[in-house]
Design a protein that fits this description.
- The chain is an alpha/beta fold and 193 residues long.
- The protein has one domain (2-190): Rossmann fold.
- The chain is built from seven helices and seven strands; from the N terminus they run βααβαβαβαβαββα.
- It has helices at residues 13-24, 27-31, 46-53, 69-81, 99-104, 125-131, 167-190, and strands at residues 2-8, 33-40, 58-60, 85-90, 109-113, 136-143, 153-160.
- Strands 3-2-1-4-5-6-7 form a seven-stranded mixed sheet, with helices on both faces.
- β4 (85-90), α5 (99-104) and β5 form a beta-alpha-beta unit.
- α1 packs parallel to α7 (167-190).
- The longest helix has 24 residues, at 167-190.
- The radius of gyration is 16 Å and the shape is globular.
- Bound molecules: 5-O-phosphono-beta-D-ribofuranosylamine (GRF).
- 5-O-phosphono-beta-D-ribofuranosylamine binds at residues 8, 10-14, 47, 91-92, 112-114, 139, 175, 178.
Length: 193
Amino acid sequence: MKNLVILISSGGSNMAALARAARQDDWERRLGARIAAVISNRPDAPGLDLARALGLPTEVVDHQQFEGREAFDTALAGAIDLHQPALVVLAGFMRILTPAFVARYAGRLVNIHPSLLPAFPGLRTHARALEAGCRFAGATVHRVTADLDHGPILDQAIVPVMPDDTPESLAARVLTQEHVLYPRAIARLLRPS
Ligand code: GRF
Protein backbone atom coordinates (compact mmCIF):
# COMPACT_ATOMS: atom_id res chain seq x y z
CA MET A 1 0.00 0.00 0.00
CA LYS A 2 1.31 3.46 -0.91
CA ASN A 3 0.94 5.81 2.03
CA LEU A 4 0.20 9.49 1.59
CA VAL A 5 1.02 11.96 4.32
CA ILE A 6 -0.73 15.33 3.98
CA LEU A 7 0.73 18.42 5.65
CA ILE A 8 -1.58 21.32 6.51
CA SER A 9 -1.45 24.60 8.42
CA SER A 10 -5.00 25.93 8.43
CA GLY A 11 -8.34 25.33 6.72
CA GLY A 12 -7.55 22.02 5.10
CA SER A 13 -10.03 22.27 2.25
CA ASN A 14 -7.54 20.76 -0.21
CA MET A 15 -6.84 17.95 2.26
CA ALA A 16 -10.60 17.32 2.48
CA ALA A 17 -10.89 17.31 -1.32
CA LEU A 18 -8.13 14.68 -1.47
CA ALA A 19 -9.83 12.62 1.24
CA ARG A 20 -13.17 12.74 -0.57
CA ALA A 21 -11.60 11.79 -3.88
CA ALA A 22 -9.71 8.93 -2.22
CA ARG A 23 -12.97 7.62 -0.84
CA GLN A 24 -15.20 8.24 -3.87
CA ASP A 25 -12.71 6.88 -6.38
CA ASP A 26 -11.58 4.06 -4.10
CA TRP A 27 -7.87 4.86 -4.23
CA GLU A 28 -7.14 1.87 -1.98
CA ARG A 29 -8.45 -0.64 -4.49
CA ARG A 30 -7.78 1.24 -7.73
CA LEU A 31 -4.44 2.85 -6.90
CA GLY A 32 -3.23 0.88 -3.90
CA ALA A 33 -2.96 4.13 -1.96
CA ARG A 34 -4.39 5.60 1.20
CA ILE A 35 -4.06 8.74 3.29
CA ALA A 36 -2.04 7.52 6.27
CA ALA A 37 -1.89 10.75 8.24
CA VAL A 38 -2.70 14.45 8.24
CA ILE A 39 -0.03 16.42 10.05
CA SER A 40 -0.39 20.08 11.04
CA ASN A 41 2.29 22.45 12.30
CA ARG A 42 -0.46 24.38 14.10
CA PRO A 43 -2.40 22.71 16.93
CA ASP A 44 -5.38 25.03 16.28
CA ALA A 45 -5.63 24.41 12.52
CA PRO A 46 -9.34 24.00 11.67
CA GLY A 47 -8.26 21.38 9.12
CA LEU A 48 -7.44 19.00 11.98
CA ASP A 49 -11.12 18.78 12.99
CA LEU A 50 -12.09 18.39 9.36
CA ALA A 51 -9.60 15.53 8.97
CA ARG A 52 -10.92 13.80 12.09
CA ALA A 53 -14.49 14.20 10.83
CA LEU A 54 -13.38 12.50 7.64
CA GLY A 55 -11.98 9.62 9.67
CA LEU A 56 -8.32 10.42 9.04
CA PRO A 57 -5.57 10.04 11.65
CA THR A 58 -4.16 13.43 12.66
CA GLU A 59 -0.93 14.53 14.27
CA VAL A 60 0.54 17.86 15.32
CA VAL A 61 4.19 18.88 15.14
CA ASP A 62 3.99 22.42 16.53
CA HIS A 63 6.73 24.55 14.99
CA GLN A 64 6.59 26.90 17.96
CA GLN A 65 7.96 24.15 20.19
CA PHE A 66 11.25 24.09 18.28
CA GLU A 67 14.19 26.45 18.10
CA GLY A 68 14.85 27.04 14.43
CA ARG A 69 13.84 25.47 11.15
CA GLU A 70 16.29 22.56 11.29
CA ALA A 71 14.98 21.26 14.61
CA PHE A 72 11.37 21.56 13.46
CA ASP A 73 12.04 19.91 10.12
CA THR A 74 13.87 17.04 11.83
CA ALA A 75 10.92 16.43 14.15
CA LEU A 76 8.48 16.72 11.25
CA ALA A 77 10.50 14.24 9.19
CA GLY A 78 10.47 11.86 12.16
CA ALA A 79 6.67 11.98 12.28
CA ILE A 80 6.36 11.61 8.51
CA ASP A 81 8.84 8.73 8.22
CA LEU A 82 6.82 6.55 10.62
CA HIS A 83 4.37 6.22 7.72
CA GLN A 84 7.00 5.41 5.06
CA PRO A 85 5.13 7.62 2.60
CA ALA A 86 5.16 7.23 -1.16
CA LEU A 87 4.09 10.88 -1.34
CA VAL A 88 4.23 13.81 1.04
CA VAL A 89 1.47 16.19 -0.02
CA LEU A 90 1.68 19.84 1.01
CA ALA A 91 -1.85 21.25 1.20
CA GLY A 92 -1.76 24.80 2.51
CA PHE A 93 1.35 24.04 4.57
CA MET A 94 2.67 27.48 5.41
CA ARG A 95 6.26 26.76 6.39
CA ILE A 96 9.40 27.20 4.36
CA LEU A 97 11.16 23.85 4.35
CA THR A 98 14.91 23.41 4.77
CA PRO A 99 16.96 22.09 1.81
CA ALA A 100 17.73 18.97 3.88
CA PHE A 101 14.00 18.25 4.29
CA VAL A 102 13.34 18.78 0.60
CA ALA A 103 16.27 16.51 -0.32
CA ARG A 104 15.05 13.80 2.04
CA TYR A 105 11.74 13.58 0.16
CA ALA A 106 13.11 14.23 -3.32
CA GLY A 107 10.67 12.91 -5.91
CA ARG A 108 8.00 12.35 -3.23
CA LEU A 109 7.15 15.93 -2.25
CA VAL A 110 4.38 17.88 -4.02
CA ASN A 111 2.62 21.19 -3.41
CA ILE A 112 -0.34 23.17 -4.66
CA HIS A 113 0.16 26.89 -5.20
CA PRO A 114 -2.68 29.34 -5.94
CA SER A 115 -1.23 30.93 -9.08
CA LEU A 116 -0.22 29.95 -12.58
CA LEU A 117 3.45 29.34 -11.80
CA PRO A 118 6.01 30.55 -12.66
CA ALA A 119 3.92 33.72 -12.21
CA PHE A 120 3.45 34.90 -8.64
CA PRO A 121 5.41 32.54 -6.40
CA GLY A 122 5.18 33.36 -2.69
CA LEU A 123 2.34 35.13 -0.91
CA ARG A 124 -0.51 37.53 -1.93
CA THR A 125 -0.86 35.71 -5.24
CA HIS A 126 -4.43 36.82 -5.96
CA ALA A 127 -3.84 40.48 -5.09
CA ARG A 128 -0.72 40.49 -7.26
CA ALA A 129 -2.57 38.91 -10.18
CA LEU A 130 -5.25 41.62 -9.94
CA GLU A 131 -2.64 44.40 -9.63
CA ALA A 132 -0.90 43.08 -12.74
CA GLY A 133 -4.17 43.16 -14.69
CA CYS A 134 -4.20 39.40 -15.38
CA ARG A 135 -7.20 38.18 -17.36
CA PHE A 136 -6.66 34.65 -16.13
CA ALA A 137 -5.52 33.18 -12.85
CA GLY A 138 -5.32 29.67 -11.52
CA ALA A 139 -3.45 27.10 -9.52
CA THR A 140 -0.44 24.86 -10.03
CA VAL A 141 0.51 21.46 -8.66
CA HIS A 142 4.28 21.09 -8.71
CA ARG A 143 7.09 19.03 -7.34
CA VAL A 144 8.85 20.71 -4.45
CA THR A 145 12.47 21.67 -4.86
CA ALA A 146 14.72 23.83 -2.71
CA ASP A 147 13.70 26.83 -4.86
CA LEU A 148 10.40 28.05 -3.33
CA ASP A 149 7.39 27.54 -5.67
CA HIS A 150 9.63 26.74 -8.65
CA GLY A 151 9.65 22.93 -8.91
CA PRO A 152 8.60 21.08 -12.07
CA ILE A 153 4.94 21.64 -12.91
CA LEU A 154 2.68 18.58 -12.77
CA ASP A 155 -0.69 20.14 -13.60
CA GLN A 156 -2.53 23.46 -13.69
CA ALA A 157 -6.07 24.82 -13.61
CA ILE A 158 -7.10 28.13 -15.15
CA VAL A 159 -9.93 30.44 -14.03
CA PRO A 160 -11.05 33.74 -15.56
CA VAL A 161 -10.55 37.00 -13.67
CA MET A 162 -13.79 39.02 -13.51
CA PRO A 163 -13.81 42.83 -13.78
CA ASP A 164 -15.16 43.27 -10.24
CA ASP A 165 -12.93 40.66 -8.61
CA THR A 166 -11.37 41.26 -5.22
CA PRO A 167 -8.48 39.13 -3.95
CA GLU A 168 -11.06 37.26 -1.88
CA SER A 169 -13.49 36.54 -4.71
CA LEU A 170 -10.64 35.45 -6.98
CA ALA A 171 -9.18 33.25 -4.23
CA ALA A 172 -12.54 31.53 -3.77
CA ARG A 173 -12.86 30.85 -7.51
CA VAL A 174 -9.32 29.48 -7.67
CA LEU A 175 -9.80 27.36 -4.53
CA THR A 176 -12.84 25.64 -6.06
CA GLN A 177 -10.65 24.56 -8.95
CA GLU A 178 -7.82 23.52 -6.62
CA HIS A 179 -10.20 20.96 -5.17
CA VAL A 180 -10.57 19.36 -8.60
CA LEU A 181 -6.96 19.82 -9.68
CA TYR A 182 -5.12 18.40 -6.67
CA PRO A 183 -6.90 15.01 -6.48
CA ARG A 184 -6.51 14.65 -10.26
CA ALA A 185 -2.76 15.37 -10.11
CA ILE A 186 -2.16 13.09 -7.13
CA ALA A 187 -4.15 10.23 -8.67
CA ARG A 188 -2.07 10.56 -11.83
CA LEU A 189 1.15 10.36 -9.81
CA LEU A 190 -0.09 7.26 -8.01
CA ARG A 191 -1.24 5.44 -11.14
CA PRO A 192 1.19 2.71 -12.14
CA SER A 193 2.82 3.75 -15.44
C1 GRF B 1 -4.68 27.04 -1.02
O1 GRF B 1 -5.04 28.17 -1.80
C2 GRF B 1 -3.38 26.49 -1.46
O2 GRF B 1 -3.15 26.60 -2.84
C3 GRF B 1 -2.40 27.36 -0.72
O3 GRF B 1 -2.99 27.58 0.53
C4 GRF B 1 -4.41 27.44 0.43
C5 GRF B 1 -4.78 26.37 1.40
O4 GRF B 1 -6.15 26.23 1.55
N1 GRF B 1 -1.09 26.75 -0.68
P1 GRF B 1 -6.71 24.97 2.36
O5 GRF B 1 -6.00 24.94 3.71
O6 GRF B 1 -6.43 23.74 1.56
O7 GRF B 1 -8.17 25.25 2.51
